[in-house]
User: What shape does this take?
Amino acid sequence: MNTTTELYNEVQSAETEPVMRKGTFYELIFAMLFTAFLIWTGFYLLNPATLPIRQVRIEGEFRHLSTNALQDLVRPKVTGGFFNIDVTAVRNTLLTEPWVRDASVHRVWPDNLQVFVTEQVAIARWKDTGLLNRSCQIFIPDRSSFPPGLPVLEGPEGSQIMMMDKYFYLQKQLEPLAMQVSVLRLDERRAWMFESGDGLQVVIGRKDFDDRVTRFVEFIPRSLGTNIKDAEMIDMRYPNGFAVHWKEGVTEIRQESGAL
Assistant: This one.
């Protein structure tokens, strides 16, 4: 009985083996053709001549930038087709323009690039060379593009945020005097001074910044009145008074209770 069963199985195996080999052969051919198709498709899509980029659309709200100038800037990087253009290279090229705060680049089927550019917003000048944006980061555009009327901050590298905070605090304290801060300076000895829009220089010194600013706001108008327009510099480093250097070259020291 076992011998008969084994013989039957051998006959069945012999009959089905050619069919299995034939199926495996077709599967192998199909796999090879499919792989070749994928390789051809990859080469086709990565070919620069396939779906070339024909238009670059640049969007954003600009005061110091122009669409035409930005298009001229990125044109050398707009090479290749839709699938193989290097959008990172296009973005990095835009970021080389100092007035560009950020940029995003997207493919738009079938042959467009859409670029959105965020322009820098300057809130102050940094020394005599650059500008500060809203994040107190320094950027250095062409000097001819500096917006007029910005306050000037001068201080050690890395002190931008602290100086911007002091500027806003100082400007708020000076509102009752209708006085604008045109220059705020922190020297290497960490001594403060500021200059008003009228050219008056006020020395605060290294200590008691807030207290000395408060004394300036409360006492200077009562002590000098309209004569403040004739003052060239006021030194607030005196414990109970201040020194006035007049435009005529005379220096006078005053106490809060009156003139010495």
